[in-house]
Each structure stands twice: as C-alpha cells, then as structure tokens.
Design brief:
Layout (H helix, E strand, L loop, with lengths): L17 E10 L4 H10 L5 E9 L2 E9 L6 H15 L2 E9 L9 E8 L4 H13 L3 E9 L4 E8 L3 H15 L2 E6 L9 E4 L10 H9 L2 H12 L5 H10 L8 H8 L6 H10 L3 E9 H11 L3 E10 L2 E7 L5 H15 L6 E5 L5 H6 L2 E5 L3 H6 L2 E3 L7 H4 L4 H9 L3
Parallel strand pairs: 9-10, 9-13, 10-11, 13-14, 14-15
Antiparallel strand pairs: 1-3, 1-4, 2-3, 5-7, 5-8, 6-7, 11-12
Helix pairs in contact: 1-2, 3-4, 5-8, 6-7
C-alpha cells in the first residue's frame, strides 16, 4: 500500500462514531495483514486499533476501523471482506459498535508467572485472583517455554501493591512463582541489578570451601547453626568462623576460586543484562578474595564483600575493614545506585538469606532466589527454580530475545 499523509485531526473517534471490529482467523501465512488492509482501504476507513496473535501457526487478526460513511458501503465492505477471507481460506467476523476500545482502568501492572510445569489449574487460580482484586487482564503472552514456562499478564484496574500481596498468597498455595511490577517507563529504563553471592550467584558457601581446606568444616557448620538459631548475630558468627581459618596458607585462595561453581543461568543473566545497558553488582557476606575474581571474570560493575586479613602469606583468622552484614548490604545497594546514577526504584536486588532482607526491601524489585520461607514471604517476589536467568523474565525479557542476542555475538 502507498503511504498516505496523516491528517492533523485526531484519528481517535468519538464514542458516538460508528466503528467496525474486523476479526480474521485461520492458518497463518505471509500477506494476510497486507491483504486485509488493502481490502479495507477501498472504503476509506481509518484504523483505530489493530492487534495480531499467532499461536502454533494459527492467526487471529483484529482490526478496529471507522465505519464507511457512504450509503450502503458498510454492507459492501462486509461482503468484500468475507469474500477476500474465503479466497484466503480464512474465517471472518465483523462486529458493529461505536467509538474506540473502552479505556483501561487505572492501576496497571505486569504480572509474570513462572511454572515448571505451568498448569491450567494454576493459571486459572492466578486469573481468578486477579479478577478478585478488581483487575482486568488486557493481554497475555508467553515469555519462555524453557527451562520454565513463563507468561506475562498485562493487568489494569488494580493497584500494584494490593495485587502483589494477593498473588503472592495464591502463588504460595499453588506452587508457582509470581512477580508483579508496576507498568510505566521505568520498566524499560536503565537499571541496576545487585546480587548476593553465596547460594545466589554461585552454588557454594565460600566460608565452607575455605573450611574444607583448613580441616574445620564441622566447627564452621556448628557456628553457622548457632547463628541460624539466633544465638549469634551475623558479625559474631563471621568472626567466629573466620577465626577457625587462622594459619592456612594464602595459596588456598586460588584453590577456592577454582572450586566456585556458578549457578545455572548466571552467565546468561549477566551477559543479557549488560547487553541491555544495565549495570550489575554483587554484595556478599563472603570475601573479596572471591568476589574480586568474580567481578573480573563476569565483567561486573560493582563488588563489595568482607576481606580476609593475610600476613606473611598466611590467613590471620581476622577480617579487615567494615563488615558487610544485613544492614551493610542495603547501604551498598544505595551506594551503587548513586554511583550508577540509577534511582533506587529502578534497582533489582536478588538474594536468598535473611541477611539479604534489608537489601531486597530497599530495592525497587526484591527477588528471593530459592530462599528460606521467611525471605520468600518478605520479598517482593520469589523464584524457586534453579536457573538464575529466569530473573530476566521478571523484567519482560523473552527467551527468544536472549537467544537472538546470543546468536549475534558482539
């Protein structure tokens, strides 16, 4: 079709203007959209709205147009569209109405649902809870089919926070992961993503790797258990466990670095975030001897952790500098955000432990990754599959986009 000059008059019809919703469905093939629009062009109609979906080779194309003004033209348009559709072995339906689509409700959110598998029963439960909060589902599309099924609902008519609370309860009951984020420009703006390290970015607990070389795994485990029972706070437990490492050779650091195992999907997550222009950092109650290496290997923008003191080539059993604890992680998130020039509302924090809670709550989106129940309940959302790159789906990135970017290496 040849391009036409756009009139300075608004193309959105008044509520009283007659409109026609033209629906086409059938087997997809190239040329359907162009063919339908060519057919409609003969009647001088204006396109008010258009949307197309293709699922397993079947197309549903909806075009909302102004009704033709000439006497008898609407009947002719209907006959012509049906004739064209028949020639294309498609079905057509034309519905009369007035004006544009009804306005979407205030309060708009993106609801991402992760399931492995995602069942009809769980999807029904989520959709029902959205309706129960006063929300309307405006659109649904799939983000990924593996390693988990991820779908996104665009919802209007319900405020984000009440919707998030309601769906978190439902998700816990039915065994799926649900994330709710507010719609708006900030979702597509540059972001800062900050992760915990032990049992989040990596599969290991670094202190336990050091303890294995020092022959004190049982003692370290006992101190950890005391901290979990609330008998020691994080700083006390850190000093108690590090003291058990006194005297081991500094060469152990290289061995521990070699033993660190990245969480599945970690490289994909970071690589994709960097391609999107995001900045990425880590904060850890572990040690800079490992996080500095991870920062270099993975191309991270920020990294902060505790530092093991080394004197004459031996670990002294002490840490030096300010201790990175629960409150410290939140402070570092704020500092990284300020240095990156990213508002706190556009930050994403990912962690698994109770000492990550302040950071998760301070971030614009806090993600509990395979976390303890107390952390899952307090975070904005939870991911309970062992693939760190599923966090991308919470940001609206599809698996196809990830794979396409990987196919065109920078």
């Amino acid at each position: 079709m040849s391009a036409s000059r756009i009139s300075p008059v608004t193309t959105v019809p008044d509520d009283d203007v007659p409109t026609l919703l033209v629906k086409i469905f059938g087997k997809d093939r190239p040329g359907i959209t162009a063919g339908l629009c060519d057919t409609l062009a003969a009647y001088g109609v204006r396109i008010v709205d258009i949307e197309q979906v293709v699922t397993r080779g079947r197309i549903v194309l909806c075009v909302l147009v102004t009704a033709p003004k000439a006497d008898g033209a609407e009947g002719d348009l209907r006959a012509t569209v049906h004739s064209w559709a028949e020639s294309m072995r498609l079905q057509a339906e034309i519905i009369s109405g007035r004006g544009d689509n009804r306005p979407r409700g205030t309060g708009r959110s993106h609801v991402t649902v992760l399931g492995n598998p995602l069942t009809a029963e769980s999807t029904a439960a989520i959709a029902s809870r959205i309706t129960g909060t006063g929300g309307n589902i405006d659109r649904i599309f799939r983000l990924a089919k593996y390693p988990v099924t991820a779908v996104e609902f665009e919802v209007s008519g319900a405020e984000t926070e009440p919707l998030r609370t309601a769906l978190a309860t439902e998700a816990a009951d039915i065994g799926v992961d649900v994330a709710v984020v507010a719609s708006g420009l900030q979702r597509r703006a540059q972001r800062l993503v900050v992760m915990d390290v032990d049992s989040t970015l990596i599969q290991d607990e670094v202190i336990e790797l050091f303890a294995a070389h020092a022959g004190c795994q049982a003692e370290v485990a006992e101190v950890t258990a005391r901290a979990m029972r609330g008998e020691l706070d994080f700083e006390q437990s850190l000093h108690a466990r590090v003291a058990l490492l006194a005297g081991i050779d500094e060469s152990v650091v290289e061995k521990v670095r070699a033993e660190v195992r990245l969480t599945p999907g970690a490289r994909t997550l970071i690589r994709t975030l960097k391609r999107l222009g995001y900045q990425v950092g880590v904060v850890s109650g572990g040690f800079t001897q490992v996080t500095d290496d991870l920062k270099e290997r993975l191309g991270l923008d920020f990294a902060s952790a505790n530092t093991l003191e080394v004197v004459d080539g031996k670990l002294t059993g002490r840490v030096i500098g300010e201790v990175v604890d629960r409150a410290g992680k939140a402070r570092l998130l704020r500092r990284f955000a300020a240095e990156a020039g990213v508002p706190l509302v556009q930050t994403v924090a990912i962690g698994d432990g109770a000492n990550d809670l302040d950071m998760l709550n301070a971030a614009g989106l806090g993600v509990a990754f395979n976390a303890k129940p107390v952390v899952r309940e307090a975070a904005h959302t939870a991911v309970n599959v062992p693939f760190l790159d599923t966090v991308l789906y919470l940001l609206g990135v599809t698996r196809e986009e990830v794979e396409a970017a990987d196919a065109h290496v920078d």
